[in-house]
Each structure stands twice: as structure tokens, then as C-alpha cells.
Design a protein that fits this description.
The protein is mainly alpha-helical and 52 residues long. It is built from 2 helices and no strands.
């Protein structure tokens, strides 16, 4: 479920933008960007466990 969070926030931001609520849309895009940054930090610093 948590993997869908940035897609959901991006969908909400797009919907708000289409409705003309520019400030709310930009705010939700900023939240989406922060979620992407958190994902990138987690995946770049996580130990990669590979069983060979």
C-alpha cells in the first residue's frame, strides 16, 4: 500500500490542478517530491541482500 502513496498524491495534485486550485496542487506536488526523495534515500542506502 505504501508503494502507491506517491502515485496517489500525484493523482490528487493533477486533479487539483485541473480544477483550478493552483496553490493546493503545487503543495501536493511538493509532498510527492518529498516522498520520492525519501524513497531514493532509503533505496540508495539500504543494504542489498542477494543470495547467490
Amino acid at each position: 500500500m505504501i508503494m502507491m502513496l506517491p502515485f496517489l498524491t500525484a493523482l490528487i495534485a493533477t486533479w487539483l490542478g485541473m480544477r483550478g486550485q493552483r496553490n493546493a496542487s503545487i503543495s501536493v506536488w511538493a509532498v510527492t517530491f518529498v516522498i520520492y526523495l525519501a524513497w531514493m534515500k532509503y533505496h540508495m542506502t539500504d543494504k542489498l541482500n542477494i543470495s547467490l
